[in-house]
Amino acid sequence: PSLIRVPVIMDGIPGKKCGAIIFTAEELSNCRDIATMQLCANKLDKKDFFGKSDPFLVFYRSNEDGTFTICHKTEVIKNTLNPVWQPFTIPVRALCNGDYDRTVKIDVYDWDRDGSHDFIGEFTTSYRELSRGQSQFNVYEVLNPKKKGKKKKYVNSGTVSHTKIRCVPNPSLILGNPAQPTSLHYMSPYQMNTYAMALKAVGEIIQDYDSDKLFPAYGFGAKLPPDGKISHAFPLNGNSEDPNCVGIEGVLEAYFQSLRTVQLYGPTNFAPVINQVARSAQDITDGSQYFVLLMITDGVISDMVQTKEAVVNASALPMSIIIVGVGPAEFDAMEELDGDDVRVSSRGRFAERDIVQFVPFRDYIDRSGNQVLSMARLAKDVLAEIPDQLLSFMKSKGIDPRPAPPASGTPSKPPLNTRI
Predict the structure, then answer these.
(1) What is the pLDDT averaged over residues 44-63?
(2) Of residues 60, 64, 73, 142, the one with CA closest to residue 104
(3) Average pLDDT of span 233-240
(4) Please, which pLDDT band fits residue 356 given cuts at 50, 70 and 90?
(5) 204-208, 245-249, 273-277: lowest mean pLDDT where?
(6) For helices 247-261 and 194-206, what crossing angle results, to 10°?
(7) Helix, strand, coil percentages, rounded to 5, for the chain
(8) Contact (Cβ atoms closer than 8 angstroms) between residue 321 and residue 293
(9) What is the per-residue pLDDT for 170?
(10) Which has the closest alpha carbon to 333: 306, 353, 313?
(11) How large is the angle between the packed helices 304-314 and 271-281, nearest 10 degrees?
(12) pLDDT at 415
């Protein structure tokens, strides 16, 4: 993994537990940029006896395993609910390890002299969002989950925005090596890895509904040659002008080729590739095409807030998302996106339709080792919701089915094109 955590048990009094120190290491990116930013807040919650607060901010960088590491604290501004913090400078590497889409969490606290600082609220963003500068989209609601759960009329605990931001250039431990059997991407000469099995199982069935058999295929979570730039939506075939692969076999070929050229790298961000497909889907909403995004992943979702917003936005488009989880990881976040029980929501908006289907591949592996059976079981369940999702979009837009083709040899309209 790109993140390694090593617990060291501490010795002490015999028979008593003295805890452990955990050492965490992550390969540093080669990003040398320095960011200078200044933030301010408005109408924060009152925490002090005299109706004011002494607010300060704590910035956290997200890790691949879903944890957060403190990377910056602002100074305390005394006796105000509308603080303006001093500008500060931070290496982009420290904020997000050079990955502009990595989640940055920011907590807002009220300072107390005895160190028991009161939690006001939190919000998440990314360096890419921050770098867009002052706008209505860069005003963040400070939310306190406990208050939100208790008070029906709770809106927020204030807002935070930034007054300026500037980025200037300043003149490994990596994901499993695909050449090693310990990697889920291992390219064995004897059998397919689980990524290839999932892709082949789902793709070979759904490709029959695609008229041109051209499939744009993207990877997410890698450093790209030649400069090691981190990307969460790069074409597997290496061609940004034309990411299409010919048939599922072409996708598999591009996948294996990319493993030889890129350096796998976390964290796992879903939003960029979902938004990439959504941009294509939003251009064709007349019912003539329907897009199916198949995502195969072995990690936690590192940008859950942005992913939820991407799913909510995509729910109004002719689009479905299939997520296949491979490997032994816990997939609680994926289950949350699969809106069978509770519809996905973001910033108070609920998804118009349930468009996500998630399955863990380990549930479909045949005990006898029969890969064909494993793939058949996976394909059956993973595609089960697509017909209803497609119909729900057509109904929501008032699009009627095309008339059945005439019995004679008269040419009819081409069939619906389902894009993968």
Answers:
(1) 91
(2) 60
(3) 93
(4) very high
(5) 204-208
(6) 150
(7) 25, 30, 45
(8) yes
(9) 55
(10) 306
(11) 10
(12) 45
C-alpha span between 403 and 383 (Å, rounded) = 25
How many helices and strands, by DSSP H and E, does the chain display? 10, 23
CA distance 240 to 251: 15
What are the tens digits of pLDDT across the range 180-227? 776 778 777 778 888 898 888 888 888 888 888 999 999 988 999 988
- Cβ distance 248 to 200 under 8 Å? yes
Tokens of 330: 């816990």
Which DSSP string corresponds to 363-379? GG--TT--HHHHHHHHH
CA-closest candidate to residue 293, choices 350, 351, 358:
358
Amino acid present at 267:
P
Task: Tell me the C-alpha distance between 376 and 371, whole Å.
Answer: 9
Q: What SS3 class is residue 305?
A: helix
Reported as a pLDDT band with limits 50, 70 and 90, residue 349 is very high
Q: CB count, 10 Å around CB of 231?
A: 20
Q: What are the angstrom distances between the C-alpha of 125 and each of 53, 181, 199, 313?
A: 24, 36, 32, 17
DSSP letter string, 15-49: TS---EEEEEEEPPPS--EEEEEEEEEESPPP-ST
Please report, rounded to a whole number, the percentage of residues in the chain having pLDDT higher than 70. 88
More confidently predicted of 168 and 115: 115
For each of the domains in the chain, give its residue range(s) and CATH number, in order of start.
30-169 (2.60.40.150), 194-403+410-419 (3.40.50)
Reduced to 3 states (helix: H, G, I; strand: E, B; else coil), residue 60 is strand
Rg (CA), the chain: 24
Q: What is the pLDDT of residue 274?
A: 96
Residue 408 has pLDDT above 60, yes or no: no
One-letter identity of residue 103? T
- Cα atoms in the Cβ-side hemisphere of radius 13 Å centred on 383: 17
Residue 250 in this model has a pLDDT that exceeds 70: yes
14 preceded by a cis bond (ω within 30 of 0): no
The C-alpha atoms of residue 176 and residue 184 are separated, in whole angstroms, by: 8
Whether the Cβ atoms of residue 157 and residue 106 lie closer than 8 Å to each other: no
Work out the percent of the chain whose per-residue pLDDT is above 90: 43
Contacts of 391 (CB under 8 A, 6+ apart): none
Q: What is the pLDDT of residue 23?
A: 75
